[in-house]
Amino acid sequence: MRGWTKIAVAVALISPLSAVTARSDIAGIAAATYSTYSVPPPTRDHVFICHGFTCKYIVQVDLTEADRAKLTRMLAPGKASPEAERRAVAAAGAWFDRRIAPAAGTQNHVAHAGYVYMYNPHQFDCIDSSRNTTSLLLLLDQLDLLRHHTVDVPVSRGLWLGGQSPHTTAVLVETKSGAKWSVDSWTRGYGVAPEVMPLSRWVTLK
Predict the structure, then answer these.
(1) What ranges make up the beta strands (E) of the chain?
(2) Of the candidates 119, 122, 132, which has an alpha carbon nearest to the alpha carbon of residue 186?
(3) pLDDT per position in the chain (206 positions), as tens?
(4) Can you tell me the distance from the alpha carbon of 188 to that of 181, in angstroms, rounded to the nearest whole number?
(5) Nearest to 143 by CA among 96, 179, 106
(6) Whole-angstrom Cα distance, residue 29 to residue 22?
């Protein structure tokens, strides 16, 4: 798969204290997340969606005031606790998948899309999914909708070592504890909330 030669760099980001928070260094996250694939970072008004495997295709999605209001309502229950915020983020991920689909043509994308779908413009690989989900997380941060988390750069596992296939996920960092959480949308089909779990568990999965 094109782009996996750079995974070794991303694997180094797994260390517990390696977070680059969106509030302190949006430019740093953008450079680490998007520059390899020439994807512009998100703004309050636009997100740039990768699809077709390894960001082969990129489409701009313009966000409206109604979109921002929708996200504000969806994240409101997350103010209660870090756990509630992660649930709200997952719900926002399902909405975001549906919101970007008409522009990207991904209404029928499948979970765990593998090599049989390579360069299919209607599918996502994990590079696409992790970048798109990170864009959502950065958007939430820019809208001041995250109370208990900051955003980290995507993290990778695998390289076929020990039977573990390469995979990449978006990451949230719980502000109070410093615990990292994977927000993995590649394992879900169209319109389904991403899987959210401790990153320490995610890195052990095959």
Answers:
(1) 46-51, 57-62, 149-157, 167-174, 180-184, 195-198
(2) 132
(3) 444 333 333 433 333 333 343 354 788 898 999 999 999 999 999 999 999 999 999 999 999 999 999 999 999 999 999 999 999 999 999 999 999 999 999 999 999 999 899 999 999 999 999 999 999 999 999 999 999 999 999 999 986 556 667 899 999 999 999 999 999 999 999 999 999 999 999 999 97
(4) 17
(5) 96
(6) 7
Its pTM stands at: 0.87
Radius of gyration of the chain, Cα coordinates, nearest whole angstrom: 15
Token pair, residue 182, equals 């994977």
Helix (H, G, I), strand (E, B) or coil at 196: strand
Q: Is 6 helix (H, G, I), strand (E, B) or coil?
A: helix
Query: What backbone phi and psi angles, to 5 degrees, belong to 185?
Result: -95, -15
* Residues in Cβ contact with 196 at an 8 Å cutoff, skipping those fewer than 6 apart: 86, 87, 89, 90, 172, 181, 182, 183, 184
